[in-house]
Amino acid sequence: MIIEEAALKFGVSKTEIHFDGKILKTTDGKKEVSLKELSTELFYNNNQKQLVACESYCGEKSPAPFMGAFTEVEVDTETGKVEVKDYVSIVDCGTTINPNLARIQVEGGLLQGIGMTLYENVVRNEAGKLLTNNLMQYKVPTRKDVTKLTVEFAESYEPSGPYGAKSVGEIGIDTPPAAIANAIFNACGVRVRDLPITPEKLLSEINNLKNKSL
């Protein structure tokens, strides 16, 4: 479409247009226009016409991304409440093409993982009716529930991926359960092995530990 519009502007065929990614010029070099100038001209002078270019990529391989995570939690051994005070994750998703987009993608996955670990619980009654069917009962974390969240990238190059990239869509949700459970164990010496790690479950394990020490 870009080359077609430049050809229409200059009154030549598409084969007579050379485009280097920034400048469109005729093959004889007599006429040229920048991509910015062409898009502005079309938008303001041709009924807000917009230049659009689409491309897709479907890889034959799907190399796995990797992530390491470190978290600091605060455990109230009287109430069983767990607060995530700091969460740091290091991600290898190959070449990070768009760092800001990749970062917020991982942050969203981390919050989902934290929710799965500490809050979110599907409860049904004996008849199978869902009891946690609204946000009053089905708890999800907010940004305030995580004091500090840090995402950094350990870049690598994946030959089979576009521009050396690997996927980063779902890796964020994987690390919170193990990282938080281990941090809780480090804080108070008990392990809860089924999710979510609710205050009730944690208090039960703490009491079991106390009884064993008597």
From TrEMBL:
Q: Where is the Aldehyde oxidase/xanthine dehydrogenase second molybdopterin binding domain?
A: 4-146
Does the keyword field hold Plastid? no
What UniProt keywords are attached to this protein's entry? Answer: Oxidoreductase
**Gene Ontology terms, MF aspect:** xanthine dehydrogenase activity
The record's top EC class is: oxidoreductase
Pfam hit, one: MoCoBD_2
Q: What is this protein called?
A: Putative xanthine dehydrogenase YagR molybdenum-binding subunit
- According to its UniProt entry, this protein's organism is bioreactor metagenome
